[in-house]
Design goal:
- The complex is a heterodimer of chains A (113) and B (115).
- Chain A contains no helices and 12 strands.
- Chain A is mostly beta strands and 113 residues long.
- In chain A, the strands form 3 sheets. In chain A, strands 2, 5, 6, 10, 11 and 12 form a 6-stranded mixed beta sheet that branches. In chain A, strands 3-9-8-7 form a 4-stranded antiparallel beta sheet, with no helix packed on it.
- In chain A, a hairpin with a 5-residue loop joins strand 7 and strand 8.
- Chain A is globular, with a radius of gyration of 13 Å.
- In chain B, strand 4 and strand 5 form a beta hairpin.
- Chain B is built from 1 helix and 11 strands; from the N terminus they run βββββββββαββ.
- Chain B has 115 residues and is mostly beta strands.
- In chain B, 3% of the residues lie in helices and 50% in strands.
- In chain B, the strands form 2 sheets. In chain B, strands 2, 4, 5, 6, 9, 10 and 11 form a 7-stranded mixed beta sheet that branches. A 4-stranded antiparallel beta sheet of chain B has the order 1-3-8-7, with no helix packed on it.
- Classes of the chains: A mainly beta (113), B mainly beta (115).
- Chains A and B meet through strand 6, strand 10 and strand 11 of A and strand 4, strand 5, strand 9, helix 1 and strand 10 of B.
């Protein structure tokens, strides 16, 4: 079965410090991986994706993610967190041979001033 | 360039009633997918419409049905509402059924509360 796991319900980080939000996946075939962010009462906003190529993917708002095939991970990172980064973050994988996304349960990022 | 538009933004229905949610895709997109996001959960895929046909379906009962119109807009219908249908319903549009290549754009959702 294809799935995505986000092991942390919440991540707390001080403003200016680096942040990491973890994601591991299980898929058939090549993984197509995504990160989305959700602010309160809003839909999902696309941050970045990995389809193929360089294992380090750069996305919106200074975020990046590292694809690690051997560890089946796709962790989201940012060198210096902002209070405005506080939101709910979802990792997702495209299900094999379909166009549907399978989402993790989400990680709430709280950045403290 | 308009993004994905969903209506209404909020809705309260009584158990057993029927509801229709609407979605207009991003300009230039022709594929619409619907997701259900229960409180504290990640979105769950309901189904996808492309070329006015249901192309893929998730693990949702037949009470959930949909439609796509020639202008690519879409409706999600839910019959015989249950309390457990209370959720944020998200619409995502893409091009040619290839969201991984061309990107998925999500709307802000419709918050459905069943009482």
């Amino acid at each position: 079965a294809q799935s995505v796991a986000q092991p942390e319900d919440q991540v707390n980080v001080a403003e200016g410090n680096p942040l990491t939000v973890k994601c591991t996946y299980s898929v058939s075939g090549n993984p197509y991986l995504f990160w989305y962010v959700q602010y309160p009462n809003r839909g999902l906003q696309f941050l970045l994706k990995y389809i193929t190529g360089d294992n380090l993917v750069k996305g919106s708002y200074g975020f990046e993610a590292e694809f690690n095939k051997s560890q089946t991970s796709f962790h989201l990172k940012k060198p210096s967190a902002l209070v405005s980064d506080s939101a709910l973050y979802f990792c997702a994988v495209r299900a094999y041979n379909t166009d549907k996304l399978i989402f993790g349960t989400g990680t709430r990022l709280q950045v403290f001033p | 360039d308009a993004g994905v538009t969903q209506s209404p933004t909020h809705l309260i229905k009584t158990r057993g009633q029927q509801v229709t949610l609407r979605c207009s895709p991003k300009s230039g997109h022709d594929t619409v997918s619907w997701y259900q996001q229960a409180l504290g959960q990640g979105p769950q895929f309901i189904f996808q419409y492309y070329e006015e046909e249901e192309r893929q379906r998730g693990n949702f009962p037949d009470r959930f049905s949909g439609h796509q119109f020639p202008n690519y807009s879409s409706e999600l219908n839910v019959n015989a509402l249950l309390l457990g249908d209370s959720a944020l319903y998200l619409c995502a549009s893409s091009l040619g059924g290839q969201g991984d290549n061309y990107g998925y754009t999500f709307g802000s959702g419709t918050r459905l509360t069943v009482v």
